[in-house]
Predict the structure.
Amino acid sequence: MAKKITKREKDYSQWYLDVVKEANLAEHSPVRGCMIIKPNGYALWENMQRQLDDMFKETGHQNAYFPLFIPKSFLSKEAKHVEGFAKECAVITHSRLKATDNGVEVDPDSKLEEELIVRPTSETIIWDTYRNWVQSYRDLPILINQWANVVRWEMRTRLFLRTMEFLWQEGHTAHATKEDAMKETLQMLDVYARFAEEYMAMPVIKGTKTESERFAGAVETYCIEALMQDGKALQAGTSHFLGQNFAKAFDVTFQDSDGVVKSVWATSWGVSTRLIGGLIMTHSDDSGLVIPPKLAANQVVIVPIWRNEEEQSLVLEYCESIQQELKEYNIRFKLDDRDQYKPGWKFAQHEVEGVPVRIAVGPRDVANKKAEVARRDTKEKEFIDRDKLGKHVIDLLDEIQTTLFETARKYRDDNTHYADTYDEFKEIINEKGGFVYAHWDGTAETEAKIKEDTRATIRCIPLDDDTESGKCMVTGEKSPRRVLFAKAY
């Protein structure tokens, strides 16, 4: 298991793929660029989904579902949107197959009158629908979220981080005023940041994208950016202020309280199974997966150890009492009482799969009224009195969650740099990596030159209050503040 995992310092990309494989998270499918998410991986996504869904509903959103297929003509209605997604679209041209001597082939007589696009995102079909839902200001706001799959025809893929088909949620909201839409956009950015930090234990920086990096069709794109253990950035979530672009393209208007007909203001926002990749690369180590307790399918695994039937009965009875206590503390746990595997093999499996806490119980522990408790993140072990076990485990899970966040934040801070000259910037990016704060003159030309020279991009213009003015490191022109650069996934 762990022996099959490449060391991070040797080959980080292979290490990542090894962790995904050995932790039984996902595997490649027969369809190029797509993945099969295995139960361990899907359990992670379910816990992410469950928590995010609660957070969305706490902010007044409802779930709905829209078709997977979008008429091609819909994508033509918003020019920037179609330009941004045209090269990534999967297109359905025919409706059926026919049998032949060689198997099946596309029936040429089944050509569609209008081709259908497998959704790369749902703005177009949703805004065509909203036209029928909105007549008056009384119909607003519309606060809808959709859990779905999407398809983007990627040429270079990597499990979870970039696949042709992936799972996500996409929020689409409609508002009567620009102010309400902007408030929604920033609120959802804050929801994503809170989820990343409080549940994923992954520190993030909030900011806006540059014009060249904005979502296709957006007026403004806000994002959260995280730093992975190899010094590369990961965009972990986006929230878009769409202005009135889609409302005008699909003629979504309403009569306001003053009797004037106006166009609706819009937002969209989303996160995907890419978050699982971010979790892996933020916390995991050379022994395998490390999962923050708040998102672990099983926060605790109990491993009973015995040599004969008499010991088996004794130990399992002891473990039963532990299970009952963990249930009372609402701790998610698993009893691994498989007798076809030795305890050492079980320990190794649960370590590589990232279970936060392991409780081991043998006959001697029963006699001493104790249990061995091991934490996955630091691999520290200690014997705990049975009457203190439940409280100890609940406190330990909280400690692990906090430790993972603080460790990740320290790594990010230790790998955040400042550059004043272009030579200094290039040296840091090429030799150290990490986040680099530097001045930029605000032009697309300079942004493109930096990307071409270094492969680093502007990850965001941070929303913090650090607005130190200066001069662009490339052109020497005035710059109102430093922006955040990094190489990225």
Notes: The longest strand covers residues 165-175. The chain has three domains: 2-283, 298-396, 416-486.
